[in-house]
Amino acid sequence: MTPMMVVESWIEGPLRQFVSDAGAELALLLHPSGQVLAQHGFARAVDVMSACALAAGIQASAGELGKQLDGKPFSGMHHVGRNRQIFLAEAASPRGAYIFLTVFGPESSLGLVRLYFNELVAGLAAAAPADTPQTAPALAEHFERDLNRNLAVLFGRA
Amino acid sequence: MATPFAAMLDSLTKQRGVTAALVVSERDGIIVDSNLQIGQPGEKVAALAAFLYRKARLSARAAGMGAVSFMQLEAPAGRICAVGGGSLVLVVVAETSVNVGMVRMELLRAVEGLVAADGAREEGG
Fold this sequence. Notes:
Strand order of the largest sheet of chain A: 1-3-2-6-5-4
Radius of gyration of chain B: 14 Å
Number of strands of chain B: 5
Strand order of the largest sheet of chain B: 2-1-5-4-3
Low-confidence stretches of chain B: none
Helix content of chain A: 40-55%
Strand content of chain A: 15-25%
Number of helices of chain A: 4
Number of strands of chain A: 6
Order of helices and strands of chain B: HEEHEEEH
Structural class of chain B: alpha+beta
Oligomer: heterodimer
Shape of chain A: globular
Helix content of chain B: 40-55%
Number of helices of chain B: 3
Low-confidence stretches of chain A: none
Distance between the termini of chain A: 22 Å
Largest sheet of chain A: 6 strands, antiparallel
Largest interface: A-B, 7 and 14 residues
Largest sheet of chain B: 5 strands, antiparallel
């Protein structure tokens, strides 16, 4: 089994619990800018980078679409594939809003994923260090450096 | 507007000791229709009961025991009973004191309607 990798240790417990309870195959927690914070199930850094970029783009598009249609951003998205399903949603935490992406197969279900996603958000809120400031948005000039640093931490090349 | 499941849900929740009845998608664990009391965690029950029912159905099939007709979960504070029909599961949440025989009979009676409503729902897209 591919190990779980986290940039900040407080994320590991709640995310590990989610993966175990929901039976998720892949899980990814990222900053809205697309910088990875934690991942489970990915084997290659390039896959994490691609998934983060796509997830951030989809979440931004869905948020804007929701504002246009409903006056407020859509908070989540679910897509059913032939064998696997994707659930993408905003995960609020005391350190700011993150994006959560998970992929699950027929062993799990959307209901279970939504149920345990709510517990994940509660777990992140409880586990977040109290003395750390809210995560600031990434600046363009630091984006690539921070992205590469996080990927290096996750895949052991720091 | 009444849904195709309203009558079966009403007949189940009329049983003494039944606190909730839900029609749930077996694959997704999402509520299709329900009779719930205020404050009951319907979404949690739906997700977990559908998951349990699916596992029970697959286990029975793998063991060569045929189709699951009725599933009952007993816990200190209550019972969950479920039957499947088509792609749907009919779930009842009840107190421990409930007459399980009556609930089982009502659930098995409802299966035919569940399958018919599921078929009509699928045809309607």
